[in-house]
Specification:
Length: 409
């Protein structure tokens, strides 16, 4: 594939420690486009190895507004179905720029391993020293080992290592919408993490027309989301008033994903003055609320002023906050965190029926976003990011002919 994607996708066999590059053919992209849709095709093609597919959308890593999304596709131990979970922040773009727009991970390693993707190379790294480490420590160690603070890491904590279905795959330090127990699948494969550093480039068929269209689209999107930031962008999360009030006291800043004009994530500080902007000696001042629905669920389970710190514990342990919030009985912070430690050893997520992660509102635009590589939260807020507009951009960027139906699962 000459435009918008890298030339190859990667098939990794953890059992043999081998990785095979396979050409990403133009006809394949024409039929399946990308993201969740193309991931699903790769899952079916490599079904024999109980695959986990990491993939990017057609626009991931480009100038298209909200082009941050990567997608994890696998058979969920929670729902029993093949499902799709998002990973955003900078990790989606980083995966594509490693040289592999899609990675199929098959079978299980004999010993703890992490996969290190960089410069069109896949390294299998011994993760024995990382097994048992919490997510935050594991990320720091991997970045230190590889000598680069900008490495993006998808990893598991103790919950994933113990293969509990309340486990989630965590994006760097923060949870990112895995509601399907995919962290347990990493644990079953002895896969502690996938680390990514991308230095590649993407080609565009008609760059001038593509840039012109994306600039125009960005202008429309900005008008449609005007005034939305932090809580005002999160109507769908049903955050209670008491929890908002607690968060306002801890509010440090709002943040957005790669190339996302909607800063719906927010960082809360509770170990130092939240107005402090300069670096201090406080190493872990707070938490990024990257999962507002998870935060809201915890805020209903514990005291509102403690919800952020309990969310931090979930992220360190690699627990899905939505799955564990309803199982908490302790209302105090210390008691809740102690319960989470036990849940990371043994707990089961309640079953539900979904194919796309209920991390953002379900809609046709969200479905298109999972294929295109667009933030689904932004897509829910911006009507301009619809299948018709994305199909037009896709045709310009690839030189292929796409219609709106291409952006439907």
């Amino acid at each position: 594939m000459d435009n918008m994607y890298t030339e190859y996708y990667l098939v990794v066999d953890l059992a043999t420690g081998t990785a095979e590059e396979i050409e990403l053919e133009e006809e394949f992209v024409q039929e399946y486009v990308g993201g969740a849709k193309l991931n699903m095709a790769l899952y079916e093609e490599h079904k024999d190895g109980e695959p986990i597919v990491l993939g990017t959308g057609l626009f991931t890593g480009t100038l298209v507004p909200g082009s941050c999304l990567g997608v994890i596709t696998a058979k969920s131990p929670v729902t029993g179905k093949v499902a799709h979970a998002p990973f955003s922040w900078g990790a989606g773009a980083e995966l594509k720029l490693t040289g592999y727009s899609f990675v199929v991970i098959k079978n299980a390693a004999e010993a703890p391993t992490y996969l290190w993707l960089h410069d069109e190379i896949a390294d299998f790294v011994d993760a024995s020293a990382l097994w048992g480490k919490n997510v935050w420590d594991a990320v720091d160690i991997i970045r230190d080992e590889q000598g680069e603070d900008r490495i993006q890491v998808l990893s598991i904590g103790k919950a994933g290592e113990n293969k509990v279905t309340t486990a989630q795959i965590v994006n760097n330090y923060w949870g990112d919408g895995d509601r399907f127990g995919f962290g347990a699948l990493f644990g079953a494969k002895n896969l502690k993490a996938v680390a990514m550093r991308g230095m590649g480039e993407l080609e565009i068929d008609d760059a001038d027309a593509f840039i012109e269209k994306t600039e125009a689209l960005l202008g429309v999107v900005k008008k449609q989301i005007a005034g939305k930031s932090g809580f005002s962008a999160l109507d769908f999360a049903n955050i209670p008033a008491a929890l908002k009030a607690a968060a306002e006291k801890q509010m440090h800043r709002v943040e957005a994903d790669f190339n996302n004009p909607l800063p719906y994530k927010f960082f809360l500080k509770y170990r130092e003055d939240p107005t402090t902007m300069a670096s201090t000696k406080v190493e872990e001042p707070g938490v990024l609320v990257s999962d507002p629905i998870g935060y809201a669920a915890l805020g209903a389970a514990v005291a509102p002023e403690d919800a952020a710190e309990v969310l931090e514990a979930c992220f360190k342990l690699g627990l899905n906050p939505v799955a564990v919030a309803g199982k908490l009985t302790a209302k105090d912070k210390a008691g809740a965190i102690a319960e989470l430690e036990k849940m990371a050893e043994s707990s089961k997520a309640d079953a539900f029926d979904a194919v796309l992660s209920p991390f953002a509102p379900a809609s046709e635009r969200a479905e298109a976003a999972y294929i295109a590589g667009i933030c689904p939260v932004l897509a829910a807020a911006a009507e301009a990011l619809n299948a018709e507009a994305l199909a037009e951009l896709a045709s310009i960027g690839t030189g292929l002919d796409f219609d709106a139906d291409a952006f439907k699962l």
